[in-house]
Write a structure and sequence with these properties.
Number of strands: 2
Strand content: under 5%
Shape: rod-shaped
Number of helices: 2
Structural class: mainly alpha
Strand order of the largest sheet: 1-2
Length: about 140
C-alpha cells in the first residue's frame, strides 16, 4: 500500500482526498478480512481431511498387526500339524509317511503363499499409506 500525501487547502487537508483514502483503506481491510475468512474455512477443511487420513492410517496399522498375528498363528499351527503328521507317519509305515510328506509340502506351499500374500498386502498397504501421506504433504504446497 502506498502512502498518499494530501494536498492542503486554506482549512487543512482536502476533505475529498482524505475521504477517498479512508474509503480505499476500508475496502482493502474488508478484502483482507474476507480472504482471512476463506483461508480459515480452508484450514478447517484441511484439518478435517488430515484427521480423516490419520484415522485411516491407524486403521491400516491395526489391519497389518492383525494380519501379522494371523500369519504367526497359521505358521505355529502349520508347524504343530506337521510335527503331528510326522509322528503319525512313523507309527503307521510308509503309506502314512508318504501322506504326511504330501501334507507337509502342501502346508509349506500354503505358508509360502500366505507369506507372499502378506508381502503383497504390506506393499499395497504401504503404497496406499504413502499416497495418502503424499496428499498430506501436498497440503503444505497449497498456496494459502
Amino acid at each position: 500500500m502506498r502512502m498518499d500525501k494530501f494536498k492542503t487547502g486554506f482549512t487543512g487537508y482536502k476533505k475529498e482526498e482524505v475521504n477517498k483514502f479512508v474509503n480505499d483503506v476500508v475496502k482493502q481491510v474488508e478484502l483482507m478480512l474476507a480472504d482471512l475468512k476463506t483461508k480459515d474455512v480452508e484450514i478447517t477443511d484441511l484439518k478435517k481431511s488430515l484427521e480423516h487420513y490419520k484415522n485411516m492410517e491407524n486403521t491400516f496399522n491395526r489391519a497389518i498387526l492383525v494380519a501379522e498375528d494371523a500369519s504367526n498363528q497359521i505358521k505355529r499351527i502349520a508347524r504343530d500339524e506337521s510335527a503331528g503328521l510326522i509322528e503319525e507317519a512313523k507309527k503307521n509305515a510308509s503309506r502314512i509317511v508318504n501322506d504326511a510328506l504330501i501334507q507337509a509340502e502342501k502346508t509349506q506351499i500354503e505358508t509360502a503363499q500366505l507369506k507372499r500374500n502378506i508381502v503383497t498386502f504390506k506393499r499395497r498397504l504401504r503404497t496406499i499409506v504413502e499416497s495418502q501421506l503424499d496428499l498430506v504433504d501436498d497440503i503444505d504446497h497449497l498456496d494459502i
